[in-house]
Amino acid sequence: MAARNRKSMAGALVFAGKVMVAVAVSSLAAGLIFQWCATKVDERRYPMPGVMVEVDGHQMHLDCRGEGSPTVVLDAGLGDSASTWALVQPEVAKFTRVCSYDRPGLGWSEKSSGARDTRHVAAQLKDLLLQAHIPGPYLLVGHSFGGYNQLVFQSLYPDQVVGIVLVDSSHPDQGDRLPGPSMEQYAAEMHWKALAAPFGLQRLMGWCRDDYTFPNAPQAWKQVAPVSIALDCRSSVFPATYDEFLAFRESGRQVAAVTTLHALPLIVLSHDPQVGIDFPPENAAEGERQWNAMQEELRALSTNSKRVIARTSMHYIESYRAELVIQAIREVFTAAATGQQITAATTEE
Questions:
Q1: Shortest CA distance to 225 belongs to which of 237, 207, 211, 238?
Q2: How far is CA 276 from the centre of its chain?
Q3: CB 107 within 8 Å of CB 77
Q4: Section 186-195 average pLDDT
Q5: How far apart, in whole angstroms, are the C-alpha atoms of residue 217 and residue 314?
Q6: How many CA atoms lie within 13 A of 218 on its CB side?
């Protein structure tokens, strides 16, 4: 009797295990289908502007508008797409050509297995512009991690760059100087999100919606944010973001080698410390102090520079205070054309 009971129980356990495996497989399959269908709906709802250009064997998205020289090149933050420039690019296109693009796996660009450190990103951007027949000179604009890329781009191709605008740019020492979670901790959190991305969990959990729902953002941003949210929900985005996190310290070391821009026109835009950049509350004061010091160090890279603190703005100044970004681009554009100096003390606007 006991033997029969054990055999019966073993059979029940095997059956239960098979049921659990079947349920898990079915759930994963349902997630894949859900993600595929939702992505197709987004693609119809938000058609891609610009063109796809083959670089290193994969397709990269490039969106150029307007006419004139120098060409303004917009580089978005870590894990962000070209859509974050939605309030800036149309206005800059009124006075010169302006191009935004998506790094591999982000926005509309195809994913790639290539290195994601900033030196490779900058070289890839140059190839993209060459393949698309967008010659220099260039006026570079970089937000956050995009600032890393543009500083290294200038160091690689100095004769083709006439000015830079840094929008709350990352600093090469921030991994060591900022309090709170390390980049490695952020990367660890992003890793499991990257694994879940193909199954649509970022949509179900609202991760992509939360990434671009900024507190107290202006109505103009709220109107264009759905495009950024839809692009952030693509399966390739969280893995690509994870790769950029993993390379962030190496990218910082590469940017640290850029010790001077000489007299290149430079404007540094920084978020409002009274509003903050979402540091943990217990570290906010020290975080803002360090960020302010590092932004001043970025301004000091050029003898022909100034810094503007954007009142009421958090990290995405291009979303909160797009007019300040446009104004800074126009000012550097004019300085490059006329030789006019832009040196000034740090101000708030």
A1: 211
A2: 19
A3: no
A4: 83
A5: 9
A6: 15
Phi, psi of 269, deg, nearest 5: -100, 135
Q: Is the peptide bond before 137 cis (omega within 30 degrees of 0)?
A: yes
| % the chain with pLDDT above 90 | 71
Q: How far apart are CA 116 and CA 349, in angstroms?
A: 35
Nearest to 249 by CA among 192, 302, 185: 185
CB atoms within 10 A of CB 88: 25
Closest C-alpha to 131, from 58, 70, 74, 199: 58
What does the alpha-carbon distance between residue 123 and residue 132 come to, in Å, rounded to a whole number?
Answer: 14
Cβ neighbour number for residue 180 with a 10 Å cutoff: 14
**DSSP for 47-71?**
PPPSEEEEETTEEEEEEEES--SSE
For residue range 63-115, list pLDDT tens digits in order. 999 999 999 999 999 999 999 999 999 999 999 999 999 999 999 999 988 88
**Residue 17 and residue 115 in one domain:** no
Do 9 and 61 share a structural domain?
Answer: no
Buried b (16+ CB within 10 A) or exposed e, 254-273: bbeeeeebeebbbbbbbbbb
Residues 90 and 73 in one domain: yes
Long-range contacts, 247-250 (Cβ 8 Å, 24+): 247/115, 247/116, 247/117, 247/118, 248/78, 248/145, 248/175, 248/183, 248/187, 249/175, 249/183, 250/117
264 and 319, same domain (yes or no): yes
CA separation for the pair 160, 138 (Å, rounded)? 6
Q: How many domains does the chain have?
A: 2
Q: Which ranges of the chain would DSSP assign to H, the alpha helix?
A: 2-45, 89-92, 118-131, 145-156, 174-177, 183-196, 201-204, 207-211, 219-232, 237-246, 248-256, 284-299, 317-320, 322-338
Domain that holds residue 307: 51-348
Cβ–Cβ under 8 Å, residues 200 and 31? yes
Ranges 9-18, 62-71, 239-248: which has the least confidence? 9-18
